[in-house]
């Protein structure tokens, strides 16, 4: 990952110093510099700088320098910011179809998610963003959330019975835990470590890098790779800024964005692998290759409640049918 970051940074530096930009686009990200999504957009910036002959520059602002996700999405809609990287979850009130992607066990695995987002379904969803003055350029990987706890390995759905899990304040998450026989306990993320340590809760759910960087592996050593939630990330552009480009430049930018998704996904996979290795060395016990079908079957009432429209039900069926 360090090699890729160095390559991107070096290319940006070598090209930008030698040219003067005719078009400068500002891009926002809430994650810190060096995070896979930030480096993905930097890769896009490096490619468009090169393919445009130095005419188009993307200036990347990480670490919420331009505001938090919801604020920067609104600014992008109005053309104040040109580009924004954000999670699908942040668009739920703006582009309703994104709510479907918060349903548990929607994707079989990461490769399935990529196939869905890079195919016709991803294009259809992108069209709905344009109705909200946003142009989707690329879909990124935000990782998969899995369960971890301090009490016992979770090998089957029965092992979840009665365990108290921290979840974000979201009705889908609460209903998911209820359907699995566990107890949902919404609380701020910063309180999770001490809550597990003192027995207020038994565990939580998140991806490998968060499990690692938060120190939660120290107090909840049983990690089950069930991957119950994979919410895509995306890079979207202000339609105002997009329409100001020539068709030729639009093609260059879209190609650079799509190529950047390969870089971002590779960086994310490397970050996950590094965190997995770190938590195992720290004593975490990883449960893999569980039979997910009973977990999926248990979600029937959740889907009945949240995928109520014929459109949502059709989307779920087409996602599941995607190879």
TrEMBL record:
UniProt keyword Ribosomal protein present: no
TM region(s), chain numbering: none
Cited Pfam families: DctP
Entry's localization field: Periplasm
Position of the signal peptide: 1-20
Keyword Transcription regulation attached: no
Keywords for the protein's UniProt record, in alphabetical order: Periplasm, Signal
UniProt protein name: TRAP transporter substrate-binding protein
């Amino acid at each position: 990952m360090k090699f890729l970051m160095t390559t991107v940074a070096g290319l940006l530096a070598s090209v930008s110093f030698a040219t003067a930009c005719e078009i400068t686009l500002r891009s926002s990200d809430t994650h810190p510099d060096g995070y896979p999504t930030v480096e993905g957009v930097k890769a896009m910036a490096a490619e468009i700088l090169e393919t445009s002959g130095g005419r188009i520059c993307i200036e990347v602002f990480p670490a919420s320098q331009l505001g938090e996700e919801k604020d920067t999405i609104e600014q992008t809609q109005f053309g104040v910011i040109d580009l924004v990287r954000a999670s699908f979850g942040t668009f739920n009130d703006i582009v309703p179809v994104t709510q479907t992607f918060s349903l548990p066990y929607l994707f079989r695995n990461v490769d399935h998610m990529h196939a869905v987002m890079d195919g016709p379904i991803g294009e259809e969803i992108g069209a709905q963003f344009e109705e909200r003055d946003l142009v989707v350029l690329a879909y990124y990987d935000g990782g998969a959330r899995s369960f971890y706890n301090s009490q016992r390995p979770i090998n089957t759905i029965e092992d979840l019975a009665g365990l108290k899990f921290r979840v974000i304040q979201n009705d889908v998450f609460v209903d998911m835990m209820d359907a699995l026989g566990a107890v949902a306990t919404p609380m701020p993320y910063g309180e999770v470590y001490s809550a597990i340590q003192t027995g207020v809760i038994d565990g939580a759910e998140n991806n490998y890098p968060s499990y690692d960087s938060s120190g939660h592996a120290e107090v909840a050593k049983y990690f089950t790779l069930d991957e119950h939630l994979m919410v895509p990330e995306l890079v979207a552009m202000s339609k105002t800024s997009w329409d100001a480009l020539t068709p030729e430049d639009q093609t260059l930018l879209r190609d650079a964005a799509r190529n950047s998704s390969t870089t971002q996904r590779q960086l994310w996979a490397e970050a996950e692998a590094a965190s997995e290795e770190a938590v195992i060395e720290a004593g975490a016990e990883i449960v893999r290759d569980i039979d997910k079908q009973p977990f999926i079957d248990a979600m029937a009432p959740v889907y009945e409640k949240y995928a109520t429209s014929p459109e949502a039900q059709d989307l779920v069926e087409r996602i599941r049918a995607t190879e």
